[in-house]
């Protein structure tokens, strides 16, 4: 009996590569979240808008390097002034989401921040209905009940609850959902579709333009304060550089994981990532948690899983 044996090595190496990508995605996502919390809350660097501007500056530079020099993906051109305006609108909403999220981390523990962030599907469904009048199957809306109920329970049982931080966190979650809905509408035609890497390439510099005046007006002399702080403790420079680079790698690994697995796999991994981030943050920051709070968060995650399953079944 003759025949060639197919080596399992490429398949194994392919699986190992995918596992490596997922681990990198988890590490960058959770890492930037925890470092944001450390800088804004524990370290006392109370400048969330400037921090976001650092993130967007790094995303601008590293996106260009990845696309123009390293050729990770082909560069896609902006085809019209109208398309540019649409990208600018998305960038503005994106800025609001990131800034609000960073502000919330000054006041809320990461565990509660993640619990509120898990309600993104609820806001996505609401905005999709309001803007596009697109109705989902009734069972899909039913699955959103535990998503919202869980956060209400978690809020009531959160020992470190802060109203302003909570409002900022809800605003960040809503803006994130609005951006995803608007992106589907504004860049839906074949000539205007951009992959996430190219979209970031154009959105990030526009975000810097939005954030610069906001930083100068709302966080006066932040650059001078940061330089003075760096003279006392040079670690702040390395924290900001590493944190800003991580913010880019969140987007890069997000794109690569989606490319090498699927959007559905990314959704499942994202649900698990939130739970991992909660556990790690509690171990690192030792923030108090209550049984009620954890039950509420667990209910929200179950609701998100049910929502994902309902969406998949009704496609």
UniProtKB/TrEMBL annotation:
Stretches that traverse the bilayer: 12-35, 47-72, 84-105, 111-131, 138-155, 161-178, 199-218, 238-257, 264-285, 291-308
Principal location class: membrane
Keyword Transmembrane helix: yes
Pfam families, alphabetized: TPT
Membrane topology: Multi-pass membrane protein
Alphabetical UniProt keywords: Membrane, Transmembrane, Transmembrane helix
SUPFAM superfamilies: Multidrug resistance efflux transporter EmrE
Any Gene Ontology CC annotation: membrane
Domain Sugar phosphate transporter intervals: 21-308
Subcellular location: Membrane
PANTHER family xref list: SOLUTE CARRIER FAMILY 35
Protein name (record): Sugar phosphate transporter domain-containing protein
